[in-house]
Fold:
Amino acid sequence: MTDECLTGVRMMGNKAGDDGGIEPSDDARQAGFEGRLLEAEIVAILRGLTPDATTSLAVELLSLGVRCIEVTVQDEQGAQALRQTVNDWPAGPHMIGAGSIISPSLARQAIEDGAEFLVCPGLSSEVVGVARDCGVPILPGVATPSEVQHAAALGLTAVKLFPAAQLGGPAYLRALGGPFPSMRFVPTGGVSFDNAQAYLAAGALAVGIGGQLTQPSGLETLRRWIDGRTP
Structure:
């Protein structure tokens, strides 16, 4: 692991309650990440909010049972929002990651700022390499079978399907699962609480939901969706 990765990884370890033992392998870390996504079902995407608003919403989402938060970092406000939310994020079985990672430098900065996982709109072997060097799970974006095949060739076992609705929705996800049964998908883009269950039923590992959460009725809609899935 390179020196430039150590600060972010230490921060991740402290948030997770690291006891200073032997670090898990990359495969084990990725498997653990995917297991937590499967349990969480939702990745809440916080985009374009002030740092204070991001932190406040993240804490509210956590109180409702959301266990996976993605803060997009395409600008300095987003980067500040990530840092502030990480700083205020309580320890426990939940994760905060960075989204809209489009370059190796942005990946390194997000990890330095405490991101526990990275999410990308596209697939870049260089960005994947940074995540691996730093021991941080990553969900690169794919849209076509060729990109899924490329992701598999890079050794990836989970990817973000984006933009899911425009690509064909749950039917497209189900079709991709045929030739790529070992790849796990997190559909994002046009996913809402109205169609989230259809994606999960089509084989999604989890779903990414963003804009709906910042609407006036967003938290209440989330609460009803969670209540409807509680036995």
Observations:
- Residues 79 and 196 are 28 Å apart (CA to CA).
- DSSP finds eleven helices and nine strands in the chain.
- The chain has one domain: 3-15+25-224.
- Strands lie at 42-46, 68-72, 95-99, 118-119, 138-139, 141-142, 158-161, 184-187, 207-209.
